[in-house]
Specification:
Chains A, B, C, D: It comes from Yoonia sediminilitoris. The structure is a homotetramer. Chain A is α+β, with helices and mostly antiparallel strands. The first copy, chain A, has 13 helices and nine strands. Helices cover 49% and strands 15% of the residues of chain A.
Chain lengths: 411, 411, 411, 411
């Protein structure tokens, strides 16, 4: 069970670290400062220059599409990717610069595994090239989407078309003017068995009948120009070919979509935590109160030590989950994925919050990235299912050996 | 030790509750929705209409200036005020409607106790009437202001004037166009003993040399039009009469300023927590997942119960601290004030965060007041000194009996 | 809502404190040191001398039966009693010295409220006088007794007698040679509705057919000579008159039994916590490491402050629950009782454990009372129902207003 | 960084698991039940038969001295040993059966690295063979031994002898009648620099002048016949050859002694936690309350899931610390060792306590091993230095890069 950095990873990791530290992170603030200029939902020329310039550099250096762990050829495995993703968690722009940003990575996996050749040509190729972006429309405002069987956007066949009606929200990335296509979870047959009612369908962003109701806010942030949108679909028509795989395959695809991608955000969260600890340490040795550096006051040693211990444990758990994925047995890997989904955001939030506190009022302000890191990380406890659902999965897996053969359902 | 609601309080409390529930809270969202319209730092006509209309009603009903627990006549005591302040914590506008908003209450106390008759006429009277607003400039960006002896804005006498130079930030309320006057902590003599170097001085907001550098953000919110401002003072001159009490009296006044006012925000935080629990309960019985209302899933019963237990304990502690204040022995009351300053924000944050989680993605969004409540409450762990400083005070008080007579300094 | 110490309480409280500090606590260790001498389940002459000597003194001073808050005449109320019980929590022998020890207080309440005159003469009088002791047999080894409807000891009428069969365990106090009578929860009719199947019956300790299987241990302690016994009942016959009130009244009596007595142990737990904090402080200022007193190292200030804040909150909550009881509305008081049952043991355990840690290896040893205090307190999280059951009660009460009228069962 | 089970480990691990499950663990209770028979500090014939019988079997199967990771030949490394030690943590007798018990493993390391040939012949050989046992005398009652520079037992040269005077306590294993030799930390020169005052010396258990004052208790347990003893040394004389390495080398040897052995107890604690989780799961599916198995009530799913996540993280951290040790750079490994020393006991205590709670009253009793597991594990938070000291080490290591070159001491 090798969880370490491999020989082949090391130069890649060094290049990624170096590019983030010296080329990407230094432009984060400038990029974000352009957001309020003009229409929040377009890119300013400077934003385009920054982002596309960095992307081109990354592509030229072959620091691109690392997430694609299952492609042919000498692709990195999930353990190796984890080390890279962690670094990307330390900068606002980094994931996109390397074309490793959500939700595109998951969507690319869907097209790659379940798409027709036409879809691959039309959508996968430009996504892989970083020319367009995409969104994934799953969650709905009226139902508890943590129980995905509740998803209720209707999708009815009408001749050669499907017609979609309903609302979706939290369509992350849908504000981006480059966002060209949506993959959508819909209900095609409310009378089918519980896990066969749903399907996945591909809808171009410019299809008639799609109304952008409003950008959702995260603790007051709209995260423009990327954004999280609330949509209303009214008689949105797409050709039947746009349905992925077949009616009733929605859950199967959702599971597949969330392969390695399921823990990319965990890896990045650990990177955020590591960065927050770094800021905390820098602050603790440079700021003085009551005649001493903060590091020597009260429980600050304990806070720093606990932060280090939590990060190391979470990182190892994340690497172990990645390693389980790399073994290829999805069922065996599942509880490990659930575990890290609970642990990574939780410890990152704790450590970021401690770093905020160590910075005093500066910590909650725009003068450090901490406040923004916290609100971003907070959504992870919900974005891919609430903690409670993942803990439920872990518990069910744990109890299985004790109940099998007893005919007693676990819960 | 009567911590209950007195006979005389009951009708007042009922009137306040009623006005908040039926007249103030329903306008909170409309008021906030006007913020992005035009210049964020002016009031729209509708904002003025809402706020001044409500204030006039409150004044007409004599629901006004409750905070003034020490005035002549049948003023409420601090325990009684606590019940009112808690209610105000449940609505964005309520505290200001009743003229009980920070930092004005504390500033009015300063003028009342330490001001000259001229100051009372010029500033106290219109503040008591709700005609102007004020700010309190204490914290500075370059020093750890949790240790207030670090405060370093210079204030040098030059003939009949004092000349101020330096920076202040987190001047809450200074963005408000009605904000007419600042009370400022300055260093008048760096060579005096540690606690006699500082003074308080009154500076009209329109004095020459005051530069508003920028609004500070709290987790991305600028809280316009109220705001938290970062100022630079360059050769700002005020008459010597503007100095409060005398040179070197800064700490004495700061202590006095933070009389009952020290725990108003704790009382309001408990109100926020109570409101968050209410939202949590409503959600838990109305939302269904996995075939059950959320209330019946997993640890949700435990979360609700723990929230209730934390609120009750914090409220009782707050009432006890208020009661200690009402006894008139400031030294005896001090550790109780420190205790509630740690406890109230902490439990409110925990409960609001649980309520966020119970709401799923809606919890972090603009569709509930929870996200905004959380960011507001988070600042309380810093605004009036970080938790760690208050805990330090509690510990020192606790250990005093064990070390007295030992000539051993406690810490 | 007066939660303070009343005029009439003050001299009593002073006398109790004084007697504990100077006469009772100093003999705790000597009493406990006699336990291993001879048969653990008899009293040594010195034990008898200590205990009966102290009891006589308490009786002479009218410091006796304080728990009896509902008796005629100038009895103390529950709030007042709370202050006394807290003091008793600081010494091993104190509760018994004042005849305020469990389970006798609860049993005396049962006899007083539900007993016949004959029972009062035979059992209540000598219990009130401290001449005998009693046990309460409720919990059974084979069933989850946290759900009391599971209780299954059979009690079948046979002419003028009832015949009992089954097992009981954790009969606290049953090892005491002075323990003369048991009150027992039995199932008289397994076919009745869920809450009418059970009854309470009085059984003299020397009745034929009762077998003491073994003393139960609490973290290795048998708590001799008091003890917690595991019994087997085989055809144990008692006259029908021994049944309390009537068949099917078991739950009603159990509720009544656990009136004020329900929170006596909470009050004492708070006393234990207070005592642990005292030991922690003494240690922290007298022990030196790395050149400083422990109090000044790392997070010890924070630990001391947190302990103080937890105790104050728990104490106020306990007093509030007591006050609710004193108002006479049992239904309204119920959730408050559940709350303090969760809170008091929890905070006491945390504080005792921190005190253990502050003492280093001495903390886990026989050289301080802390280890014994911890194991005693740990059982409180189970003894009167596990935490989870009390939290469930609190949550159900909290949610009631949200579900009433909705025909939706809460949980 | 291979943290997995190696090929060569697998058959050994299987044999160890098998022997514990089928031959050792089933005799744990019988062995412990013999303790109160006769003199607690001798072995009963049955105890000897059980223990020596198992040891002989283990030796015959070459399941012996696994701890000796640095010996010549195909010894296991520390990562591999971790898997074995974890299994030993699930049974009371297992560690000793495989001659892997503390404090003998550490003492054997001392003799092996620092002993003369004479010492190796006299003490190391029979210890390796399991024929005698040993104790390590470090901690003293009068000083905070967490700061080892406080150690004050005097050791003065007098001709060809050293003369020892002072007290030691918590000499684990010293009650065992087979315990033949002590390794003792003493102060040979109070005037030397802080870290050169101390030495290590070998003292046969039967040397004149050694008084066994009393067995120390751990939450009331004396752990006979093994025990933790309090000693008084009065003019105890040993030949100068008994001094290890040289005067002033005490700290150097203490560091060396605590090589891999430093985390053996962490590995075993993880085994205990795993065993507690197993008992918790078994209980949760087999016990019913309120009409459901406990597993389906309230937060029990969450408790089980959190336990699993804590164990996995702690195990990985332990394996990483072991791997760091195996790399041979002691300085680099040190903070990892400190980390796991904090984490392993903490999570084990939490999980054992949750398992106790899930078992209701049975959990605190002698009917499950949980209560004993808890008290044993609780001492680990002190035995090898309190948590706070380890956290301090972690924090200092963390802050080093931020302060180096600044001439600012970290704390």
């Amino acid at each position: 069970m090798d969880l370490g950095q491999t020989e082949r990873l090391m130069p890649v990791l060094a290049a990624v670290k170096d590019m983030i530290a010296h080329e990407i992170a230094p432009l984060d603030s400038e990029f974000l400062a352009e957001v309020p200029i003009g229409d929040r939902w377009t890119f300013t020329p400077r934003q385009t220059e920054i982002l596309e310039g960095l992307k081109q550099k990354a592509k030229d250096r072959k620091l691109w599409n690392f997430w694609d762990t299952f492609r042919e050829g000498p692709a990195l495995n999930t353990v190796e990717y984890a080390y890279l993703a962690e670094e990307m968690g330390k900068s606002h722009l980094a994931a996109e610069v390397f074309n490793c940003n959500a939700p595109d990575t998951g969507n690319m996996e869907v097209f790659s595994r379940y798409g027709t050749q036409a879809m691959k040509d039309q959508w996968l190729a430009p996504l892989m090239a970083g020319d367009i972006r995409s969104a994934y429309l799953m969650t709905e405002p009226q139902v508890a989407s943590s129980d995905a069987t509740n998803i209720s956007m209707s999708c009815v066949r009408d001749g050669d078309h499907y017609v979609l009606n309903g609302e979706k929200w939290w369509a992350t990335g849908a504000g981006d003017p480059r966002c060209a296509v949506y993959i959508i979870m819909v209900r095609t047959n409310a009378d089918a068995p519980r896990h066969e009612q749903h399907s996945m369908i591909v809808v171009p962003a410019d299809t008639a009948g799609i109304e952008k109701l409003r950008p959702m806010q995260v603790y007051g942030h709209d995260d423009a120009p990327h954004g999280h949108f609330h949509f209303r679909f009214k008689d949105v028509r797409v050709p039947v070919e746009n349905l992925l795989v077949g009616e009733g395959k929605g859950f199967e695809i959702a599971q597949g979509r969330l392969g390695p991608g399921r823990i990319h955000h965990c890896m990045r969260a650990i990177g955020s935590a590591e960065y927050a600890l770094q800021l905390m340490c820098e602050r603790s040795v440079s700021r003085t109160a009551f005649g001493k550096p903060l590091s020597q006051l009260g429980e600050n040693f304990d806070i720093i030590a606990e932060s280090r211990m939590k990060i190391e444990q979470a990182r190892l758990l994340c690497l172990k989950a990645a390693w389980m994925m790399d073994q290829g047995d999805k069922k065996a890997a599942a509880p490990w994925i659930s575990q890290i989904k609970v642990v990574a955001p939780q410890i990152a939030l704790e450590i970021i919050d401690q770093a905020v506190q160590m910075h005093g009022a500066a910590g909650v302000s725009q003068d450090t990235p901490l406040a923004h890191m916290w609100t971003n990380t907070r959504t992870l406890r919900l974005a891919d299912g609430p903690d409670a659902v993942h803990r439920r999965q872990v518990a069910r897996a744990e109890l299985k050996p004790y109940t099998q053969g007893q005919n007693a359902p676990v819960g």
